[in-house]
């Protein structure tokens, strides 16, 4: 996939650095499910901590990524310890299925990188059962009048029965998987309806996407859009753009529907046109010049999506997508990665949301998608989306 010797040397080198880093970090954090780091040390979202302000406990939406990282490492190194650590995460998530409350559309983010990854590699029947359980929960959130999947449960003071969000494009692959696994078409029918609704109501004429669209939950009519985790209404939250970009590619990979590839390309063209010269991705492409908030996670996810598009297009179009992907990854490597033993994370300067209290922290899905992107370039990523 890479054209020059210099690029190939870089890829070999960065893979070695990932292997070296994950070797000791995985030992250190093997009993945790990390989200971020505190003074360089992974936190643990698998323990209920009453002093934490997050309310989701074990059902925190990012709790699948650590397991996903371990499966990518197992797949690429063959080291049994990674499989064992991934299994610890997956077992812990059972408490979430049992609790039920707190689970929402992000069951895809939670059980694709854990149970579906596990089942893909090992055919473990317990993993299949967990993933099917999660797929049924996701399918149960479908609103047939609006033809969308409801995103979150109620947020205090906010009625979210009609809310759909762009991030769900990463959850619906669980429905494609469930149909592929059971031959029951209902799951895929729901995924297709949702993707078609998102194509019509989220993607703007310039290729940018809304974060949240609210539908009337009784009539299905579009009510309004929200800026969500971006700067404001009508803005362009960069991670949301990447959920759309790579998300539509995922739908294309499962269905072969050309409209999904075309939509991924439209979002990609908008994204590429807005990459700043220095390769650092802001939290929102339409945020004010100051403060200069950025989000390394958006860069890593975009790189994954762009590499997938480059694999799906004609040879003469490949570089259009591959070049910016390499620029994003090289910038992350040179300017935003910590390869030392000072931090359990790889990427610095992730940001959950423009209006969040904290910015520029390590976030587990930044590291996950960075690793996935590097293995995609090598052609050896484990694809479970
Ligand atoms: N899926 C929520 C986020 O991207 O922060």
TrEMBL record:
Gene3D superfamilies associated with the record: 1.50.10.10
Species this protein is from: Paenibacillus pabuli
Domain of life: Bacteria
Keywords: Hydrolase
Family stated for the protein in its record: Belongs to the glycosyl hydrolase 88 family.
Classification via InterPro entries: 6-hairpin_glycosidase_sf, 6hp_glycosidase-like_sf, UG_Glycosaminoglycan_Hydrolase
Protein's UniProt name: Unsaturated chondroitin disaccharide hydrolase
Molecular function per GO: hydrolase activity
Transmembrane segments: none
